[in-house]
Every structure is written in structure tokens, then in C-alpha cells.
Write a structure and sequence with these properties.
CATH class: Alpha Beta
Oligomer: single chain
Helix content: 25-40%
Structural class: alpha/beta
Number of strands: 11
Bound molecules: iron/sulfur cluster
Number of domains: 1
Shape: globular
Radius of gyration: 18 Å
CATH topology: pyruvate-formate lyase- activating enzyme
């Protein structure tokens, strides 16, 4: 299916965080509008698809605005936003990204995330969370060591299950094996890696999964669509095909009790390295 890719210019790039992200960081930053993983597994339950202001009525995954001046705008606004953040939020911390993926396939052509990381090496935030669903995160491995010297860098790599397919749903943006390999490569480079199991999907072999996470990541964050999709009761996700597919694999997996069981198991295997829900995204582990 075709994707409409457009080059655009933006006036601002650092968005002061609100809602649940407020507890995680002072700003979010989107190198792109839209996400071309929107038609993959993570796109099915992606809460951004319900944001009409962002989608402007287009099908989620069918469009991508390339913010080609993103790095210039970052350079122009970082000092002002740093001052604001330090005064009102304690520190200038950036979440890259909350409504797109910094490593969509088109990043290899346009290099917007790459240019932003370069700008941040020159003018770093106090903290940076790089959040992705793709093994392509290693494409910028050459930049991370310099970045990690200048800022509190945490790389969040989503691996929501050990299964590559759920019945009736599209494949993931990136195969499970490739994401584990990416986590391993990042960790081997001395970087801080957090595997985000969000939203938690039914596992085939949960013990083996968390043992593997323990070997490639510093920590794990577990979240469920109930309470984790931006609505109080998971109602956003209930409007999608995700819960039905989860139920077909394991009916228990659609309950919060399933999340709590996975958290308990993860805590046995990764003591002190498990975060839950927003607190986990904010870097609080126990
Ligand atoms: S990568 Fe992230 S923003 Fe893109 S569709 Fe998946 S969950 Fe949504």
C-alpha cells in the first residue's frame, strides 16, 4: 500500500510535555508527522491513530511528513526550552519520540533523526530517551557514544512479546530476533538499554523471554493496554483488533492480572531492574 511522503518545514520541534508524558520528560520531539510502522503490529493498538489532530483524517500509517528543518529548529530553540524546563520541570529531558518512530524506514533516506542527534551532541538536553520499535536504531550507533558522554541517554527498544505474529494481525515493524540483536549491540557498545514490553502481548515462553531481556538490557518496562493506552480502562485499544487477537492466543492476556504475573516473573529474573507503567518509562525500577 502506498505511503504519501511529504517534505515539510516546522516552526517548532520541542513540545512541552503534558498528560502522562509529563512524568517522563519535559519535552517530546517528533522528527516526522505520522509513522510508517502504522500498518504493522504495533500500529494496530497505537494510541496515536486516535489523534485526529495529528492524522488529519488520514489512515494511520498511510502518510509521513518529513520535518526537514527539525535539527535547525532544535538548535534555535534548545537554549530557551532548557531554561524553561530547568525552571519548571527540574531538567531538560527529551522523549524521542512519542507519536512517530525515530527509525522509520524512510530515516535512512532523509536522516532527520540523525541530524537531530548531531544537533544534540552539540547542544545536549540533560536527558534523552530514544524510543523505538525498530532494530534500525543501530543505524545511528556511531553517534550514541558521543551523545552518552554529554547527556543522560537511555535507549528504549520495544519488544512486546516473544511472538512474531498474532492471529489476523500484520507482522511487527521489526522481527523479534532483530530487535534482540539490536539491544545486544547497543549494550555491547556500553549504552543504557531498556526493553519496553508495551503494550504487553501474550508470551509463548515468558521465563525464557525475560531471561533473554536480562542478558541484553539494563532494565525492562512492562505496561498493559489497560491503563497504558492513555484511557483509564483500555477503551482506546478496545476499539481496535488487538484485544481480540490477544484473546485468541491467551484469553488471560487481556487482563491486568496478566501484567501483574509478568511483572512478578520479571522481578524474579531481573531484581531491581523492572519498571511498570509510567513510573517505568520515567526510569524508576524496582
Ligand atoms: S512505531 Fe510507535 S508511533 Fe509508530 S505505529 Fe508503532 S507504536 Fe505507533
Amino acid at each position: 500500500m502506498a505511503v504519501l511522503v511529504a517534505r515539510t518545514r516546522v516552526k517548532s520541534i520541542l513540545t512541552r510535555s503534558s498528560g502522562y508524558l509529563r512524568e517522563v520528560c519535559s519535552h517530546s520531539l517528533q522528527p516526522y508527522r505520522g509513522c510508517t510502522y502504522g500498518r504493522s503490529l504495533c500500529g494496530v493498538g497505537c494510541y496515536v491513530r486516535h489523534n485526529g489532530l495529528l492524522t488529519r483524517g488520514a489512515e494511520w500509517g498511510s502518510f509521513l511528513d518529513v520535518r526537514e528543518n527539525a535539527a535547525d529548529v532544535y538548535r534555535r530553540s534548545a537554549a530557551r526550552e532548557r531554561a524553561w524546563a530547568r525552571k519548571s520541570r527540574g531538567r531538560f529531558s527529551v522523549f524521542l519520540s512519542s507519536s512517530t518512530d525515530p527509525f522509520v524506514p524512510q530515516e535512512s533516506r532523509f536522516g532527520i533523526t540523525r541530524s537531530l542527534l548531531g544537533a544534540m551532541i552539540d547542544d545536549p538536553p540533560d536527558a534523552l530517551i530514544l524510543q523505538t520499535h525498530s532494530h534500525r536504531v543501530t543505524d545511528a550507533l556511531d553517534l550514541y557514544p558521543a551523545l552518552a558522554e554529554r547527556t543522560d541517554l537511555r535507549i528504549h527498544l520495544s519488544i512486546e512479546t516473544d511472538r512474531d505474529r498474532l492471529p489476523g494481525l500484520p507482522p511487527p515493524a521489526s522481527p523479534v530476533e532483530k530487535r534482540f540483536a539490536a539491544a545486544q549491540a547497543l549494550r555491547a557498545a556500553g549504552l543504557r538499554v531498556v526493553v519496553t514490553v508495551s503494550p504487553l502481548l501474550p508470551m509463548a515462553e515468558p521465563r525464557a523471554f525475560f531471561e533473554r531481556v536480562a542478558s541484553v538490557a539494563d532494565a525492562v518496562v512492562i505496561d498493559h493496554y489497560v491503563g497504558g493506552d492513555g484511557s483509564a480502562d483500555g477503551s482506546r485499544t478496545l476499539r481496535t483488533a488487538l484485544p481480540d487477537a490477544m484473546r485468541r492466543v491467551d484469553p488471560h492476556s487481556t487482563s491486568l492480572a496478566y501484567r501483574d504475573e509478568m511483572v512478578a516473573l520479571a522481578r524474579q529474573i531481573l531484581p531491581g531492574r523492572v519498571g511498570v507503567h509510567i513510573e517505568g518509562f520515567a526510569g524508576h525500577f524496582s
